[in-house]
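Appendix B. Extra example for self-study. Work through it before the problem class; the solution is given directly after the inputs so you can check yourself.
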Amino acid sequence: MDHKPIPDIVVGRLPLYLRSLQRMIKEGNLVTSSQELGERLGISAAQIRKDLSQFGEFGKQGTGYDVEYLHDQLKIILKVNRVWDMAVIGAGDIGSAVARYQGFADRGFRVAMIFDNDPVKIGAQVGDFIVKDKATMVEVVQAAGIIVAMIAVPASQAQHVADNLVKAGVKAILNYAPVSLNVPEDVHVQHTDPVTHLQRMTYYLE
Amino acid sequence: MDHKPIPDIVVGRLPLYLRSLQRMIKEGNLVTSSQELGERLGISAAQIRKDLSQFGEFGKQGTGYDVEYLHDQLKIILKVNRVWDMAVIGAGDIGSAVARYQGFADRGFRVAMIFDNDPVKIGAQVGDFIVKDKATMVEVVQAAGIIVAMIAVPASQAQHVADNLVKAGVKAILNYAPVSLNVPEDVHVQHTDPVTHLQRMTYYLE
DNA sequence: TAGATTGTTAATCGATTAACAATC
DNA sequence: TAGATTGTTAATCGATTAACAATC
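Solution. Structure tokens for the complete assembly:
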């Protein structure tokens, strides 16, 4: 009677649907369809319906989807109908930009603390935060019960930081350093590296 | 006698291979194998061999791949055996961090100019650059022959900026704004949104 | 030579699309 | 009712994996 697990590739598209729906709400759209969503995102209507059908029935034949209802349901599915506290490791340019980023608030996340190991940066203010000493990271993150973190340190330190985050109990890591991280099976990692995205495009240029 | 086009998903993995190889060079590794690469990246050895075989034969039976040779070949395939000048649009926290980012240099890219429409920012220094007036963007980008750009403006302005970049002749856009962009078929877009990555992971948490 | 690893083929697996009955 | 759009099934398409001859 076990349900098949949802394919990861489907889960990966849900945040895109959610983002479009959030935008539609702001634009005042009350109703949408798989076709309209698909056009906005460059995804086929059939695929959107198939993806959503993995989680339930959210639409109405003939009329489509209630924007706000589908939006709320996707937030529940993705568990962002609450706010996740995050730790940022590294207070350089990227870490600082992340700590000041205003785009987390209404999408389920909040930066709660930021760490660095540079004595000049420790104690300094970045956005609303005082930079904490990275030496205290494992203890502080664990004590705060934080399980989501972002790595914004140089590539050479990233794996070491990841190991410490795992020790602290972190289960989801967004990695800004341009290296692949090795973590235990129960820890999730996403990589974000502008250069890999750019290189993917230059292949097609000229 | 036409070759089938290389699947996009394969092209998307090449930058990861390249990144690992660059790291191996720094570590002094002279030779690697599909198995070792796969372990580093969490990709099967068979897939790596299959991917590479789309472009030629780069290895030697029994011994594997010469790290530097494969690295150089991948740079050629991805067209990053040269330096692409880029324009950054938006001199806020993200645009500024991007403009100062040291990680482009040895991977085929260089920020050449940065634009904003805020009178307070225009003329100010960000990294090595003086912020230019966004009103001049189409003209300046076109005159410089730049075809790679990064959008780091608020979501509400991103589509408009994209339209202007297309007018300026840009063919590859890395978009930091959390919106889907619509561009002509011959223009490539990659999106980078920390929140979509995070939401992809929270699905699995708790 | 013996051991290792490639490049490639065929088999498997999974994802996308097309089509349509159901129904608002 | 007529028109529109869902949810779902079956068909298609494409990607991954397993296996192995070739060969360094």
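Self-check: Chain A has two domains: 8-77, 84-196. If your reasoning did not lead you there, revisit section 3.
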